[in-house]
Amino acid sequence: MREASTSDQASQTAGHCSFVAGPFHPAPIVASLLQAGRIEWEAGDRDEARTIFAAAVAVDRSPLAHYLFAEFLVEVDDLTHALNHLHGGWENAKRIGSADWRATCCHAIADLHHLRGEGHLADRFRQRAITAEMDAAEVQLAELPPPTSWLCDRAVSAADWNDMPMAERWLTRAIRTISVDRPADSAVVLVNLGVVALHRGLWAKGLRHFQSAFRKFHEAEDLSGVARVVENIGHLLSTRCQYPKAATCFRRAMALFQQLGASDSAARCRRFLQEANRINHVQHGDPQWN
């Protein structure tokens, strides 16, 4: 086995992994073993690297050694043992109370299940990863509010996995980080909250968010934002089969987009207007004898 030289190398390994380790750092012996394992790995001696990584796991009570061993095992196509070690890292993360590490391990587990074609398990662990990220954000919010864009990105991630309650929680926290002198930014988040509410079947709540967003965009003199909100209200009303009111919204949104020179958006609203009028005519038109 090649000698893993100095404490500087150990520090380098710890520093290299700090973005996932958070406040939990490996013991010096663990860092030295991990550095040695990486040296053997890069030198092509996979058997020696496996032995050293296993030794690191045996003495590490944090998730780090499990995680890096799993990384090595994926590289050598041993996905079954890689999953075992990621689960070990996840258990250690729960034991030491690190939400960041829980998220990291669960995302990695989800990725491996996806690679193995196990979609239901991938979805399950992706949801657990998002929940862990939410727990980590609770701590961050108590100390220093994270950037609004970061919170909104988390909401998009949750929505992509169809976890609308979680998306709503992220967006609710995002809007609290926006100062009162940024009404347009608040309006964007309110629109997204309205969309999430519609996905959850909460029509009245969605409408309230859209109306609040309308007022914010109007305050900011953002006509494009106003048009988008009015169009969204039209979709909400169409969903509730209120086609005459929906047509009025689409007509107003189309006019605003035309005023702004947004021809594609105006054409889109025209199509929605025609469809709302067509359905309304079918439902309420005057039937004629043949």
- In this structure, how is the largest beta sheet organized? none
Total DSSP helices: 15
Count of individual beta strands: 0
Average pLDDT, to the nearest integer? 81
**First and last CA, distance:** 93 Å
List the helices and strands and how they pair.
Elements lengths: L6 H10 L1 H4 L6 H16 L2 H14 L4 H12 L3 H18 L2 H17 L3 H25 L4 H13 L3 H13 L6 H17 L3 H17 L3 H17 L3 H18 L2 H22 L6
Helix pairs in contact: 1-3, 3-4, 4-5, 5-6, 6-7, 7-8, 9-10, 10-11, 11-12, 11-13, 12-13, 13-14, 14-15
Features of this protein?
290 residues, mainly alpha, 15 helices, disordered N terminus
Molecular structure report:
The structure is a single chain. With 290 residues, this protein is mainly α. It is built from 15 helices and no strands. It has helices spanning 7-16, 18-21, 28-43, 46-59, 64-75, 79-96, 99-115, 119-143, 148-160, 164-176, 183-199, 203-219, 223-239, 243-260, 263-284. The longest helix is centred in the middle third of the chain and has 25 residues, at 119-143. The protein is elongated, with a radius of gyration of 27 Å. The termini are far apart.
